[in-house]
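G.,

No rush on this.
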Amino acid sequence: MRMSTWIRQHLAALRALLVLTAITGIVYPVAVFVVAQIPGLHVRADGSLITVDGKVVGSSLIGQSFTDKDGNALVQYFQSRPSAAGDGYDPMSSGASNLGPESIVDTLDADPAKVRRSLLTTVCARSKAIGGREGVDGSRSFCTKDGVGAALSVIGPRDADGEVSHPVQVVSVNQACPATPFLSTYQGVRVQCAKPGEDYSIGRIIPIRGDASTDTPVPTDAVTGSGSGLDPHISPAYAAIQVARIAKARNISEDQVHALIDAHTDGRTLGFLGEPRVNVVELNLDLDRRYPFRG
């Protein structure tokens, strides 16, 4: 009797396994595939691929880097936002840098391969480079004029609140010697440059705002990557500061470039979610189609 019950239970389990396998492994995938072939959904289901002259050149859902082999921006193209996915926009290595707002101190070393830039310095360097490329002011709060994070290690005895009451040494932790520190003195103590390989974590790390305007023309998306590292969009503000360069490189008017930006700008999803955005991949392809680069 017990053996009979055992057999019935296992047969029931086997039937359930076969039925669920058929439903979830065959019926459901086939149903999804059939629905995906409906006109209007087919392109999206296949990855929103973009073709030019019958050749797949990308996807409207995945960004691309428009740089040369050395990583320098190609002047004739709108530039995408930074990407931490592999070497940049690698769909097999989707991800972010994982650096947070407290990442303000660089790891300096005599060996350039061992240098690790903080998020603050990374943002400062990118903003300075973009400002120079686009002819706008790339300075930012908490950044030095040479494009690194403006942070000090203030070393000395501390009070009950953890504040350094009487500094005995102050180091600009992101400016490697022999650089000239962005401040000459702090609370009456001469500011020193940082010696590569030295650990200044014993001091209180203090970011210094500086006198740069908080209303910088270089927007946030220009200097930070997306969470996936694959976002093909930039803000209209980032597109706008690139217009003059694009117009000059392609020998067209700025109004023509603005018109293309408007054509490839999507509004907020459902009218209230997210922010307006410009698809860089589609915009650059349209640029090549309408106004080929003659350089």
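When you get to it, here's the other one too:
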Amino acid sequence: MTHEDWMARAIELARQAMAEGEVPVGCVIVWEDRIIGEGRNRREHARTALGHAEVEAIAQACRRMGGWRLHKASLYVTLEPCPMCAGAIINARIPVVCYGARDDKAGCCGSVLNLFEERFNHHPRIYGGVREAECGALLQAFFGSLRQPEGPF
């Protein structure tokens, strides 16, 4: 399967997050052509700053693999990882990160900074812009709906 194929599942998860009133971000982690972890944003539902799609997917993948090293995995996420998620990716030793839309406010794969180029002991390969138009459209639709007037009272 291709990066675009795996990102399709992440987009499905992002749509589920949006249907639940969450920022539409979805993530899958793939090891040897099978999904070992999935996640979607759940910050509002779980009432925690840790409720990011990547953190959820990494936790699930670690449980499934029986350890914290995901050194043969690829991570697919619809939005460029933030500092927390980039740190989790480094700590899990994930070697490949593919993201859809850039995040000019908090992205740590090059938009604000590239944490993977800093002096850490792990440096994932980054593939940005995978199905970017679809991923960006979901985010625009979500935030656009928040700005809609609710009408007269």
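The first strand starts at residue 26 and ends at 31. Residues 3-19 form the longest helix (17 residues).

Enjoy the weekend,
O.
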